[in-house]
Design brief:
mainly beta; 2 domains; four-stranded antiparallel beta sheet; 8 strands
C-alpha cells in the first residue's frame, strides 16, 4: 500500500502525482472582525498538481476534539483526522439524546458481525449502511 500525503508539505502520491500538499488560501477572510474566521479554520489541504482536496476524500474526516457548554450555546470543535482502512476505524457524531452515529471504515474481509462488536452501543444499535469497506452505525447509548 502506498503512503499517501495528507499533511502540508507531504508529497501527494495519488496515482503517481508528485505534487506537494498545501493549505488552501483563505478567500473572503474576515479575521479583522473576529479572528480566526471560519475561512481560515475550515481551510483544507489540497494538491495543486492533481487537484485532490481533503474535503472530497472519504478517509479524511472531521472528528470531535472538544465540546464547550460555557456560553449560551454548545460549541463543538472538530479537527481533521484520517481514517485507517487497515483496521476498524470510525468517528462519532451526535445523533439524539439516546444515540450516536459511528461512521467509518473497515478491512473488507470482515463481516458486519465483527464490525458491530467494536461499534455497538450500550443498548445495541443498527447499521444504516454497510459495504465496500465503509459503514454507518446508529449506536443506542441510553
Amino acid at each position: 500500500m502506498e503512503k499517501l500525503g495528507y499533511c502540508e508539505g507531504e508529497q501527494c502520491e495519488r496515482d503517481g502525482c508528485s505534487g506537494i500538499i498545501e493549505l488552501e488560501e483563505a478567500e473572503d477572510c474576515s479575521c479583522h472582525l473576529s479572528a480566526p474566521c471560519h475561512y481560515h479554520t475550515d481551510a483544507d489541504m489540497w494538491c495543486p498538481e492533481c487537484g485532490w482536496r481533503a474535503a472530497d476524500d472519504p478517509l479524511c474526516v472531521r472528528d470531535i476534539s472538544a465540546i464547550s457548554v460555557g456560553g449560551p450555546f454548545a460549541l463543538v470543535e472538530t479537527k481533521r483526522r484520517v481514517l485507517d482502512p487497515t483496521k476498524i476505524d470510525w468517528i462519532s457524531k451526535m445523533h439524539s439524546g439516546c444515540s450516536m452515529i459511528k461512521e467509518g471504515v473497515y478491512p473488507e474481509h470482515l463481516t458486519w458481525q465483527e464490525v458491530e462488536k467494536e461499534v455497538k452501543g450500550t443498548f445495541g444499535g443498527r447499521f444504516e449502511h454497510f459495504g465496500n469497506g465503509k459503514f454507518k452505525y446508529i449506536a443506542y447509548t441510553d
